[in-house]
Write a structure and sequence with these properties.
By secondary structure, this protein is of the alpha/beta class. Helices cover 28% and strands 20% of the residues. The strands form two sheets. Strands 9-8-7-10-11-13-12 form a seven-stranded mixed β-sheet, sandwiched between helices. Strands 3-4-2-1-5-6 form a six-stranded mixed β-sheet, covered by helices on one side.
Length: 305
């Protein structure tokens, strides 16, 4: 079997340690070779691939040019850096590397069914950092039990991303779908903007709407009957102080070990009630919300459990 390996960096070194002896590699490949040999094997230019008989090309680098090979003959090891599975087939890889190695490689992609913003696929507009953070977190939930929920769904853009990345998970959608609670006295412009939605429109946006359970109305009354539920992932995007505090009080005790609560707008200067709610929760419970701030558009706080 003629096996070639693209890249001569750490990824290639790890491959030879874990699964593939250098003696089995016909040659290493670089776009512009900077050395003649690597681990005792020749290094050739990518432009020379078309002249070779190749059964499998293993790409260990993060980035690689377009390769003149059928998809079934190329295996991307750093496949998890993409939003979808770039590998056309794993048959040749199983013959070369064994089932255990390939099973582990496939496992890191099992949660990502489709690109989030490719033409012709489900598209989630908006905050790239927020979506990329969600994608990364989704992969950490393979062995974490529990449902998902979003409090503060609005038009369902982020809920749709959750639903696309984790299609096997039940997704609870908590929102009035008619704007804010009048008693919270939301700013006029914010309140008017959030009236323009509906649960029907949200469900049409979801790629796996059969997994969604709409809980329309004021929270936490709409959570009645779910007291025994466990949550692996929660997006808390209520914008205002009292609703955010209610969300923290209800969801935090029900988070699964290994789960994540994403507190949106925590660092948003225009929505100071979100941080205030977190501080009130910490004060009343004595429990520190040890989260990690991320640099998405409105400053989310990622809270692991």
């Amino acid at each position: 079997m003629e096996i070639y390996v693209y890249g001569t960096g750490c990824g290639a070194g790890e491959l030879t340690r874990e699964a593939l002896s250098p003696a089995r590699i016909a040659a290493f490949v670089e776009t512009e070779p900077t050395r003649e040999t690597f681990l005792g094997r020749p290094v050739i230019s990518a432009s020379a691939l078309s002249e070779r008989q190749i059964d499998l090309l293993i790409v260990t680098a993060k980035n690689a040019p377009d390769l003149p090979l059928p998809a079934e003959k190329v295996l991307y090891l750093k496949n998890h850096l993409e939003l979808h599975d770039r590998n056309g087939s794993y048959d040749a890889a199983r013959k070369a590397l064994g089932d255990a190695f390939v099973d582990r490689l496939q496992r890191q992609e099992v949660l990502v069914r489709a690109p989030l913003w490719d033409d012709g696929a489900f598209a989630a507009p908006g905050d790239w950092v927020r979506l990329k953070t969600l994608q990364t977190i989704s992969r950490e939930l393979i062995d974490v039990p529990g449902a998902m929920a979003e409090l503060g769904v609005f038009r369902g853009e982020f809920a749709a991303a959750m639903n696309a990345l984790l299609p096997e998970r039940r997704l609870y959608l908590f929102d009035t779908f008619a704007g804010f609670d009048p008693e919270e006295d939301a700013p006029e412009g914010l309140a008017a903007a959030h009236e323009n939605t509906s649960s029907e429109a949200v469900l049409r946006r979801l790629p796996h709407a059969e997994q969604a359970i709409v809980r329309a109305g004021l929270f936490p009354e709409t959570a009645a009957g779910l007291e025994g539920e466990t949550f692996a992932l929660v997006s808390l995007d209520a914008d205002l102080e009292e609703s955010t505090l209610a969300g923290l009080r209800w969801f935090v005790p029900r988070m699964a070990e290994g789960g994540y609560l994403l507190l949106h707008d925590w660092n948003h200067p225009g929505l100071p009630g979100v941080r205030a709610a977190a501080e009130r929760y910490e004060a009343e419970t004595g429990q520190r919300l040890r989260g990690v701030p991320v640099c998405d558009v409105t400053g989310s706080l990622i809270i692991p459990f």
